Amino acid sequence: MIELIAENLAPIMFASLIVFLLLGYPVAFSLAANGLLFFIIGVELAPLSDSINLSWPLLNALPERFWGVMSNDTLLAIPFFTFMGIVLERSGMAEDLLDTIGQLFGPVRGGLAYAVIFVGALLAATTGVVAASVIAMGLISLPIMLRYGYDRRVASGVIAASGTLAQIIPPSLVLIVLADQLGRSVGDMYAGALIPGLVLTGLYMGYILLMSFLKRDSMPALPLEARTLGSGVTSLIVALAVAGGIAYAAHVLLSPTQGENADILGATVGVAFIYMVALIDRAMKINALSRLAQQVIIVLIPPLALIFLVLGTIFLGIATPTEGGAMGAVGALIMAAAKGRLNMEVIRAALASTTRLSAFVLFILIGARVFSLTFYGVNGHLWVEHLLVGLPGGEIGFLIAVNLLVFFLAFFLDFFELAFIIVPLLAPAADKLGIDLIWFGVLLGINMQTSFMHPPFGFALFYLRSVAARVPYLDKVTGKMTQPVTTGQIYWGAVPFVGIQILMVALTILFPQMVMHYKGSGATVDPSTIKIEVPGFGQGGGGLTLPDNGGGLGLPGGLQLPGGSPLDGGQQQPGQQNAPQQNNSAPDLSAPPSFN
């Protein structure tokens, strides 16, 4: 019996960790306690099994492993992006965006739902924090959607799902963690996840479009009296056309000197021009633009500029993700100060939330280091690799099994726990099967996004439940009694969006180029077609001719090639020291030279 336990210590260790987590113990302490407990057991059982490589001196490696975690520069991006997101959320950016985009889409059936998805994508690209996005949109949008007759399940589902876009759209925190665990570049992970994130946003909007036809009464358009900014879409289209023309002209002018960067610089010139026009138009009350066009331009451009400051510099190779996060944090402070909403209370709250999340991540990482030391010592990584690589179906079978496993575990674990516990075990098997790890990481990120939406443990559902009304309340605008949103309605509203996320996983598997574009479109070289030819020596062979000592290149010691052939191309005859012989045969370079 003891021998059987010793031979199967790795699966027993993994199963006990799952039990600890299901019992509700903190993740960091479950990992560390499991690692230390099974280390002691493994040392005692080591003589009974060749698969256990544990001994007491191995504990001396723990301090160095902890130092490796704490000195990891890549993980510095997590507190930077968290701080940026909290400052932006406290500065009222989400409120301004939701109000403005809601007015823009208001005349369309389902316009508020479109606005929530659009703003959710923008907040994802500026904050990267799911909690901030869901809470902000739940506080601002949910009462408005209920006021104008939206179905409660649709309203709650679209808010929760849009908030989770911060999971996959850069600068997502989980993408940073996945890149670190997979040993890949964060910049590549961001580039690979960008298109899937945008496609997922489009699928959400497609679902709202479909529901607006199937259940017309579930998402009515804003009534005329609620459109406080009036009309003016034509003015906005004209303004955008002018900005596009200026951007194209600037691109043409800058191309001779700036090369590939001319398109980005041209777009910057066009956006800056129309933003200045809108500011001047509002300040001087010229009214060349409609109120709607003014508001959209003034509210949208600052967060878009911040997105470019963060992601643009990373994609262009100007800044690392850590440096991009630092610039984003400074940019968020500047935006909050420009709105007059930067004070010590905002900074204190942002620093407290950032410290809490960073400590949470660091403790889980340290616990994971303890667990992995023991798990690798009992050859657990080899057990997992053999288990996954040997699945029927090869690569497709592996992907199906892994995605089902992650989807099931997402019911109970959040994405940090999945990233730190499961991903390090899956990566070696994926690499052995020849799967690109950036693509694999993005695929897992999309799948783990469902962990926020799974009833009954989805964190996005908890965030929305915390801000949604629990009892009937009197609406301040209409003066009518409004019924609350029940927990069941929140859960049922999330189910269609979980299905959309599963569909996105399938699309990523079927169309891997959505992610693989991160490698660029450069020409690939087949190593088998590479041919290296070494030129022969001597004038007759048309190869490289080296003059002798009398010709200006002196090689002391009379260096000769194999077979007695001197470097000047042939045998020297008496009286012909400065006249090299013609020799059409290339020397044998496989033998060592002789020194006479």
TrEMBL record:
GO cellular component: plasma membrane
Single GO term (MF): transmembrane transporter activity
Superkingdom as given in the UniProt entry: Bacteria
Bias kind Low complexity: ranges: 562-582
Transmembrane segments: 12-45, 66-88, 112-142, 154-178, 190-210, 231-252, 264-284, 296-318, 324-342, 354-376, 396-425, 437-464, 490-511
Subcellular location: Cell inner membrane
Positions of region (Disordered): 541-596
InterPro entries given in the database record: DctM, TRAP_DctM
Protein name per Swiss-Prot or TrEMBL: TRAP dicarboxylate transporter, DctM subunit
Gene that specifies this protein: dctM
